[in-house]
Amino acid sequence: MTTNQNLMLYTKLAGFRLVVLANRFGCDSEFSRALHDRLLEGLEAAIGRARIIMALERSVLIGDDEFAEYRLEGEAEIFGRFTINLMDELDIDFDTHEFRINGGDWSSALTADYTGVDIDYPELIALTDAELGSLAPIVKDITRETGIAVRASSVSYIRCTGS
Q: What's the rounded Cα separation, in Å, for the pair 155 and 126?
């Protein structure tokens, strides 16, 4: 991205932060306030990353840091995969058949008994627009305008049997 594109992205992110902050005042439940707070945290993290990228671009342009170009490349790659999670995160290691929820301890998905071995992973279920409430259109706009994925999913422990 160019400096102008990053400045526009920064401006959009800051604008969305203000929209979410204003929208939070209309929350009628603790759940809704928590979703707004998580989205605000995610937007602030994205704004911080955009600031770092713009500072590195300046360093590259004026040539005062010999490693700025490499750091800029790394930051841009990290930012390209940036995702805001409003609820649960699920990490699955298919090689070891383990999973973890929200960065917690790893748990085995393997169960065994006299009938054989089963591998059962929990799954993420996306919140509906009704469950997201007034955040639904804002989340869609953030993704469309900035390219940053916003996920609002909860872990489902209803397991299906596989082998």
A: 9
- Over residues 13-64, the pLDDT tens digits come to 999 999 999 999 988 899 999 999 999 999 999 999 999 999 888 888 887 7
Q: Crossing angle, helix 135-146 and helix 30-62, to 10 degrees?
A: 20
Q: How many residues does the chain have?
A: 163
The C-alpha atoms of residue 49 and residue 52 are separated, in whole angstroms, by: 5
Torsion of the alpha carbons at 146, 57, 50 and 16, rounded to the nearest 10:
-50
The residue type of 92 is: I
Phi, psi for 36 (deg, rounded to 5): -60, -45
- Give tens-digit pLDDT for 64-120: 777 888 888 888 888 888 999 998 888 889 999 888 988 889 988 888 888 888 888
